Please model this.
Amino acid sequence: MAGSGDAHRPRTGGGVWMLPPWRRAPVLPFGQPAVLLAVIAAAAILACAAASAPLFLSSASSAALQRLIGNECPSAATASVKNHSTARNLPALDARVRPAMTGAGLAAPHLDALAADNFGLDGLGGPPVRVAYRADAVANLTHLPGAVGGTGVWLPKYVRDRLGVRPGAEVAVNGTPVRVAGYYPNFYDVPLPAYWCSYGFFVLPKVVSNDVPPPLVLASDPATFTRLVGSRPADYDWVSPVDSTGETVSRGYDVAGRQDAAYHAAGLPVPRDFGRTAGGTGQLPTLTDRAVLIRNGLRGPVLPIALGGTLLALLLVGAAGSYWADRRRAEVRLLSARGVGPGALAGKAVLELALPAALGTLLGAVLARWLVGRLGPSPDLDPSAYRQAAVVAGGGLLAGL
Model:
């Protein structure tokens, strides 16, 4: 009698897992192609449904950021350090800002400078002029005939017509004599080149009043700018180029962090007022925040749909498990009759289906990435999206098992 009771006692000890049915379990599904394909397909659908939400949201935010950048001037997607100071402080500021930006991991910057006040141009009867300096500005101007180049200032055609001063001669900007290096066409007479896009407010007629801004006197070098502006205030902008091709939110925030680090390293305050952050260069922090707002707005409709698809996919996984039970009914009954408990039987099922389910999960995650890349708003995704997709796909795999 004692031996008969022992024969039907459930076998739940650790020794069960070392018996042949459990040791061979991982390779058994490969002998049943129908079960194998059913589990792989169900797991792939589950992983695809679960992983698609974070991937799609990242794709949407990348597309939004790229669209926002495209609507701005090309210089908007740069890193910049801005400061308002007197012109005489420029050499000291330049010596602090340049190493601060390169030390923060940004590309070597170029300098833009614009006098805050208007100046009189001796002999010109009309509106005052605005003194400016931009690196490579002369190379991005159309030179009118007669230009001599070199150190000095470049004046628009409007000033030439009023003054009649030949290139190489001198004019006085607010009483300071300076050589005329050449003339360039009026900005409002020709299509504004991309290089000058961010200066449109300073060189093009106002939309409402059609008033023309003061003519722009372009200094050939920082020293000339400093000499002309003197102790007057000026706005300085050190601009570091950024490759915005395939821009994503994570890359935008990375540039924003480096930009803030450059401000702190240079000992300058980060501008927060709307006038300094609403346009011009260094707009990635603002544009990235807008893209994140768009992504957050999409969470409402995207996440419930993804959750519903995941729950339906879990039902498919359950159906695949039921299919396995039907195909292995005789073996399960035999093991149960020999005293194997439900825990050990469930463990055997997991061992058999784990590899096909893992393979299906991997295929589903790859499929989700491919679908989002081909059909989503943008193929460019944040690294965090891949991590989130892996987590939810792995959670789906555990739930399915």
Observations:
- The two ends are 39 Å apart (CA to CA).
